[in-house]
Design goal:
The protein is of the alpha/beta class and 454 residues long. It has 14 helices and 18 strands.
């Protein structure tokens, strides 16, 4: 079991749990593991979101990399997918994103990308952890002219802007119409600068909200985890579509013109059907996780799309896509990967693909969403001791209740229990036909888990 890394890198409360000392060790060990096959001085990119602790963590990361002898290019505040794209474009040895994604501002995190712009696999994270806690770490110290050099490269984000605009420019500008207006919530996060640049260059009428980051308001009642303000804004402002990104910009959720949420499963249905019609859905296959709604499975059967499911985490979706050459995959939370363009979730790209489909088909977002019927689904988090997240597996009382629920919803829904990879939570998800009933059952099981493991 991993000691530091979860399902999306290392994520902890900044400066108490994610200390500068820990970050220095993560950087030094990561530089060694990820650049050990490099024949020259390794180059590592660093990007971050808008959290107040971002510069603190970046300073420690930079120190660790330079101490090892790696050179650093600091990208400043940029979305996660921009870091992934630039890693490949610049042939960097690796990169790091400093972010806690959708979490509140007091958290921060570190996630590594390989030289291919992909989140590193579990085995490399384990190798980094082993090195972090070994006596060998202190010997990985460069001296004299071998000490690394850091440089500010914030202007490089313009290459990412050009890349995204180039993908969508022709089709969007050809089909755009005067009354098409979009409201975008950037969550006071990493997309707060680039989103407006991209939308403006594509000629899309856009209003941006929650784009005044102050270090502590990232994800604060805004963004993809808090859609209430966006829903109200879309309905009151007569917008064609609402878009919400998360703190680091690798996920996207949407709101149709009537104020109804379009989650990742709905977007995957819309986009997989669109790409299949164009002959661009490799092997006619869509990849999603076990958390996806049962309705997505039913949609795939009806539309002749092969449906593959992985364990939770966009890295596992990507692994399945790479292994079998699939081009589209993602999560209900809005992490969607278009592998023909970038090997990571990209909120801005996802929103523009949705806009492209709306404009090309001359349909409202609500009409496009009718392609899939979503089963009622409830997710309840049980707060537990972080050291007991896996204990539910061996607890007889908890397992007995889970088995009862699985039997009850067999054939008309499903039950899924999983520990969070980034927080001290066990997530209880139940799908069924009656939302009131499944909510009650999920809350009862969550309370039992909290009682036994809290």
């Amino acid at each position: 079991m991993r000691k530091y890394f979860g399902t999306d890198g290392i994520r902890r409360i900044a400066n108490t749990e994610l200390t500068p000392e820990l970050v220095f060790r993560v950087a030094k060990a990561g530089a060694c593991v990820l650049s050990k096959h490099s024949s020259s001085t390794p180059t590592i990119l660093i990007g971050r979101d808008t959290r107040i602790s971002g510069t603190l963590i970046e300073s420690s990361m930079t120190a660790g990399f330079l101490s090892y002898g790696a050179n650093v290019k600091s990208l400043g505040v940029v979305p996660t997918p921009a870091v992934a794209y630039l890693t490949k474009k610049l042939n960097a040895d690796s990169s790091v994103v400093i972010s806690a994604s959708h979490n509140t501002f007091e958290f921060n995190g570190v996630k590594y990308f390989s030289n291919k712009g992909m989140k590193i696999p579990d085995e490399l994270e384990l190798e980094i952890e082993d090195l972090m806690d070994s006596d060998k770490l202190s010997s990985l110290t460069s001296v004299g002219e071998k000490i690394g050099i850091a440089e500010n490269c914030e202007n490089l984000v313009d290459s990412y802007v050009d890349f995204i605009v180039g993908i969508f420019h022709d089709k969007i500008t050809k089909n755009i119409y005067d009354d098409f207006r979009v409201l975008v919530d950037v969550a006071n996060g990493a997309t707060y600068k680039v989103a407006e640049k991209i939308f403006s260059r594509l000629g899309i009428q856009v209003d941006i909200i929650n784009n005044n980051p102050n270090g502590i308001n990232i994800n604060n009642n805004c963004g993809s985890t808090h859609l209430e303000g966006l829903i109200e804004g879309v309905k009151n402002g007569n917008y064609s579509l609402g878009i919400a990104y998360d703190g680091d910009g690798d996920r996207c959720l949407a709101v149709d013109e009537k104020g109804k949420i379009i989650d990742g499963d709905v977007m995957l249905a819309i986009m997989s059907n669109y790409l299949k019609e164009q002959g661009r859905l490799n092997n006619d296959t869509l990849v999603a996780t076990v958390m996806s709604n049962l309705g997505l499975n039913i949609f795939a059967d009806e539309y002749g799309i092969n449906f593959k499911q992985t364990k939770v985490g966009d890295r596992y979706v990507l692994e399945e896509m790479l292994k079998n050459g699939y081009s589209l995959g993602g999560e209900q939370s809005g992490h969607i990967i278009f592998l023909d363009y970038n090997p990571t979730g990209d909120g801005i790209m996802t929103s523009l693909m949705l806009i492209q489909v709306i404009l090309e088909k001359s349909k409202d977002a609500s009409e496009l969403s009718e392609i899939i019927s979503i089963y009622p689904q409830v997710l309840v988090n049980a707060k537990v001791d972080s050291n007991k997240k896996m204990d539910y597996i061996n607890d007889e009382e908890i397992q007995s209740e889970i088995k009862k629920l699985e039997e009850e919803f067999s054939g008309c829904g499903r039950v899924l229990i999983r520990p969070s990879g980034t927080e001290p939570l066990v997530r209880v998800m139940i799908e069924g036909k009656n939302k009131k009933d499944i909510t009650m059952k999920a809350e009862e099981l969550a309370r039992l888990i909290e009682k036994k493991l809290g």
